[in-house]
Each structure stands twice: as structure tokens, then as C-alpha cells.
């Protein structure tokens, strides 16, 4: 009896194992699959060896081709690399979905909420609301540029005080409050003082959420039960400890705005506009308190992390490339003179500064695997069949570090973005740091002027140098995004004159 049961069990396990390792017809090439785990062991071993997820994906593409199919647990992950494949993927609406799963729902109360990691009818409604409201609040227009310029002014004055005392301070952390204020004015209609301890905590918390799990959701998304077995190493414990206070902060802010007696007819920030929409008798069912918190979290996280990382890398590369830094400052002085800060209108007059920013975005590749996509149906891509619900990663790193196109992609060379005369910016079709298609980054209109104004203003007013004997490392911290390792600087004001009438 027991022998028969054992034999049947072994046969069933064997049959299941043989079936489980079979790849679908025309599935992209990739590592062999093991029962239950898929290619998981290979992926984990490669990440441990190469240290970074994007380098692991890139290595697989070099081994198997531009489109690689991997299975991690039961998730099928498609890595898309190279100009032709990525451009084709972005042009197909079948890839406009976002993945579902434990990790992607964890950050939005176990539901599919927000706008960054959702799709479907509710996403359509919420994205239209977010885009329309941000435009009404001035996004992409002069009104909102003035908000950025004010925070730049405050940052410059703060840096002048630090320069006067010879203070050594962390670069990235010193930018965070100003960047948070830019986003917070749009979201909540208010700003905070630079020394606000709670905002410093908030910025640090946001940064840390990007470095717990990789963009594909990590092992936690594949094996949610790991949160009970190893909550810390799976990322569940750390992520939950970061999300809870963020939720609390946003819920508290929303409640304060809701209690404002003028909230019923006020649309001076995104939160109040959302609450007005919720109060309408015929409002769409997707307008809920949980959706508002999730929407705010999406905009908060994306708006702060990427801009902060790009700026952190920008100043880091200036430390490593003094001739470039001097050339930036020379152009700024030539165009602006000593008595005013840059404005958005100066951007076309500062082609070298613009080229430096573009080269930083290229070589740092802050979002190396792009924003994660999902195949919404069975679809063919470049001759391969991509099964429905596959997680799709457009490997932007493969474009921005393409040796055949850029020749010397590991070299920091802003001139690659300039015309031969050096008087205008040259566009490259391999350079798409904000993605493409319908799921192109929502924050692009905020990020571009913010990065330009913060970078050029600091460069115009201060000489910066590393506070340590050795230059800080260029090696990034891995995660959903890449960010610079913390580094300290010392600054010297280039002129004692205050910029009282700068705009």
C-alpha cells in the first residue's frame, strides 16, 4: 500500500517536473529552467557575482541575444535590449501593462492603486486626472518653473551660509529638502524650511524604499510566503517599515487639507483637487482615500528619487572631471555674468551645461532597466512569442552604454551631445532616459527644468571639492534605481555678492 502511494507520488513529481521545465513554443532563449525555481538560481548567482541586476541582465543579453526569456519562480521575465527591440516594444500597446503580484500590491494596501504600477480602466481615469491637474497647477509652464527657481534661491542661500563656515556636508542629502518642496508645493500647496527634521527623515525614507528590492519585484514577488520564513532577507520587513510611516505622513497631510473649510471648492494642489473630485456625487469609483495615498506616494517617490540621484551623480562626475567643471563654470559666467542665477530661459544659451547633464543621465543610467512593463496578451516581439502576463524589462542600459554607437561609452564626454561647433545640442535616438510610448515617465516635465536649474545654479555660485583625501566612488548603489554612494563635499562661494534680484 505505502509502496504504491510512494511510487505514484514519485511518478507524479517526475511528470510535473518534466512539464514544469518545458518552455513555451517560440519563447525567447535564456537559461535552463529547474522545477519550481525556473532560472532563479542562475539569476541569484549572477547577481552575487556581478553585484548589479542590470549587469546581470546585460550579461544574459550578450550570451543569448537581444531578447532573453527568464523564469523566476512562476514569473516569466523578458529582458529586451538593443535599439530595434526596445523601440518596437515601446511602440506596441500590448506592452503597456504593469505587473501584478505581491510586491507591486504591497505598496498600495494590497490593491492595484496609484498610476505608476497599474493599468486598465481605473489607471486611464487616474492618469488623465493626474496629468490634467498637474498641467492646471502649472507643470511644464512658467508658473511651476518659478516654484523651482524659488527653491533654487533658498538652496543657494543655504549653501552660502555653509560655505562661510567651511562646513563639510553630504551632497545628496543637502538637495533633498529643496527637491521635496518642489514636489510638495504641487501635491499639498505648501513648503518646508530647509532644516525641517521631519522632511529630512522623509527624504531618507523615500530613498531607502528604492534599494530594498529590484525593479522586477525580487524574490518576494515570486515567493510571497518567504515573508513568514525570512521577512528580513526577503525584503518584506524592511519595505514594510519604510512604507508605514510614509503612508502615515501622507494620510495626515490629506486629513489636514480635508478639514480646511475651503477644501470643498479648492483646487490649488493635487490633493485638494482629488478631494473635490471625490466629493462630486457622480465621481468615478477609482477616487478613494487609498487611491489618493497611493497616487501621492507614486509622485513623491518618482519625483524625488530620480532627480536627486541624477543631481548627485552630476556633482560627483564634476569632482572626477575638473576640466569639465571649469568649462561649465566658464560658460555660466560668460552668459550670465556674476550677479544672477540661471533661469529656464537661459537653457538654450548654455549648450555645454545641457550637454553635461545629458551625459550624466547617459553614463549614470539612473533607471537602467526602465520602468517595468507587462504583456497584456500573448504577443509576438521580433519573432519571439511573449506569453500573457510576462514581466517585460526594457534594458535602457544596453542603449546608453552601446559600444558600437557611442564608441567609448565608459568615458565621460559631454561633447558627444554637442554639434561640431559646440553651439547646439545633438539628439541621439539611442538616448531615451525617460522611456517612450504611452507609459513614458510622467515626471519628465518636472525633472528636466529641476535638474538644469539646480545643477547650473550650484555650479555658477560655488567651487566644490571632495571633503575626503580620495575622490568618492563612482560605483552606484543598486536597487529599483541606481543612486550615488553617499559622499561629502566642501564648497567655496565664488562671489560674496548675494543674488537678491536673480529672477
UniProtKB/TrEMBL annotation:
- Look up keyword Cytoplasm and say if it applies: no
In the UniProt record, which is one GO cellular component term? Answer: endoplasmic reticulum membrane
Q: What is this protein called?
A: AGAP005658-PA-like protein
- According to Swiss-Prot or TrEMBL, what is its membrane topology? Peripheral membrane protein
As for what it does, the entry says: May be involved in the metabolism of insect hormones and in the breakdown of synthetic insecticides.
Binding-site positions, heme: 441
- For this entry, list what GO says about its biological process: organic acid metabolic process; xenobiotic metabolic process
Essential cofactor(s): heme
Q: Quote the InterPro entries the UniProt record gives.
A: Cyt_P450, Cyt_P450_CS, Cyt_P450_E_grp-I, Cyt_P450_sf, Cytochrome_P450_fam2
Which residues does UniProt assign to the signal peptide? 1-17
Q: Where in the cell is it found?
A: Endoplasmic reticulum membrane; Microsome membrane
Q: Name one Pfam family in it.
A: p450
Q: Tell me yes or no: is Iron-sulfur among this UniProt entry's keywords.
A: no
What family is this protein classified in?
Belongs to the cytochrome P450 family.
Highest taxon listed in the record's lineage: Eukaryota
Its keywords, alphabetically, are:
Endoplasmic reticulum, Heme, Iron, Membrane, Metal-binding, Microsome, Monooxygenase, Oxidoreductase, Signal
Amino acid at each position: 500500500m505505502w509502496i504504491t502511494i510512494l511510487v505514484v507520488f514519485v511518478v507524479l513529481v517526475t511528470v510535473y517536473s518534466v512539464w514544469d521545465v518545458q518552455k513555451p513554443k517560440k519563447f525567447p532563449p535564456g537559461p535552463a529552467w529547474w522545477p519550481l525555481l525556473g532560472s532563479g538560481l542562475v539569476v541569484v548567482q549572477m547577481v552575487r557575482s556581478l553585484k548589479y541586476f542590470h549587469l546581470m541582465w546585460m550579461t544574459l543579453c550578450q550570451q543569448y541575444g537581444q531578447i532573453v526569456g527568464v523564469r523566476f519562480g512562476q514569473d516569466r521575465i523578458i529582458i529586451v535590449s538593443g535599439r530595434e527591440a526596445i523601440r518596437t516594444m515601446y511602440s506596441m500597446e500590448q506592452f503597456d501593462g504593469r505587473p501584478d503580484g505581491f510586491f507591486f500590491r504591497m505598496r498600495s494596501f494590497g490593491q492595484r492603486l496609484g498610476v505608476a504600477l497599474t493599468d486598465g480602466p481605473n489607471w486611464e481615469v487616474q492618469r488623465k486626472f493626474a496629468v490634467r491637474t498637474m498641467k492646471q497647477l502649472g507643470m511644464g509652464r512658467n508658473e511651476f518653473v518659478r516654484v523651482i527657481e524659488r527653491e533654487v534661491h533658498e538652496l543657494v542661500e543655504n549653501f552660502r551660509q555653509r560655505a562661510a563656515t567651511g562646513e563639510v556636508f553630504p551632497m545628496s542629502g543637502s538637495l533633498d529638502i529643496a527637491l521635496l518642496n518642489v514636489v510638495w508645493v504641487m501635491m499639498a500647496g505648501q513648503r518646508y524650511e530647509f532644516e525641517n527634521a521631519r522632511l529630512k527623515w522623509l527624504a531618507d525614507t523615500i530613498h531607502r524604499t528604492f534599494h530594498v528590492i529590484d525593479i522586477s519585484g525580487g524574490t518576494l514577488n515570486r515567493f510571497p510566503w518567504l515573508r513568514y520564513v525570512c521577512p528580513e532577507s526577503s525584503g518584506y520587513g524592511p519595505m514594510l517599515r519604510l512604507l508605514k510611516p510614509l503612508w502615515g505622513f501622507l494620510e495626515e497631510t490629506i486629513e489636514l487639507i480635508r478639514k480646511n473649510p475651503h477644501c470643498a471648492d479648492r483646487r490649488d494642489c493635487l490633493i485638494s483637487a482629488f478631494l473635490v473630485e471625490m466629493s462630486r456625487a457622480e465621481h468615478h469609483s477609482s477616487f478613494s482615500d487609498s487611491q489618493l495615498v497611493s497616487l501621492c506616494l507614486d509622485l513623491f517617490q518618482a519625483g524625488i528619487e530620480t532627480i536627486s540621484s541624477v543631481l548627485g551623480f552630476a556633482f560627483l562626475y564634476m569632482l572626477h572631471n575638473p576640466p569639465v567643471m571649469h568649462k561649465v563654470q566658464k560658460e555660466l559666467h560668460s552668459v550670465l555674468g556674476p550677479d544672477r542665477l540661471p533661469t529656464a530661459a537661459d537653457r538654450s544659451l548654455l549648450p555645454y551645461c545641457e550637454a553635461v547633464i545629458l551625459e550624466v543621465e547617459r553614463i549614470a543610467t539612473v533607471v537602467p532597466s526602465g520602468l517595468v512593463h507587462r504583456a497584456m496578451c500573448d504577443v509576438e516581439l521580433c519573432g519571439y512569442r511573449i506569453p500573457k502576463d510576462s514581466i517585460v524589462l526594457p534594458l535602457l542600459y544596453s542603449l546608453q552604454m552601446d559600444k558600437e554607437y557611442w564608441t567609448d561609452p565608459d568615458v565621460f564626454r559631454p561633447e558627444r551631445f554637442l554639434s561640431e561647433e559646440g553651439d547646439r545640442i545633438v539628439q541621439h535616438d539611442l538616448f531615451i532616459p525617460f522611456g517612450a510610448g504611452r507609459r513614458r515617465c510622467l515626471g519628465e516635465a518636472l525633472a528636466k527644468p529641476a535638474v538644469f536649474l539646480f545643477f547650473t545654479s550650484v555650479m555658477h555660485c560655488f567651487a566644490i571639492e571632495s571633503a575626503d583625501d580620495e575622490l568618492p566612488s563612482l560605483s552606484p548603489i543598486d536597487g529599483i534605481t541606481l543612486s550615488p554612494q553617499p559622499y561629502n563635499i566642501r564648497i567655496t562661494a565664488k562671489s560674496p555678492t548675494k543674488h537678491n534680484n536673480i529672477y
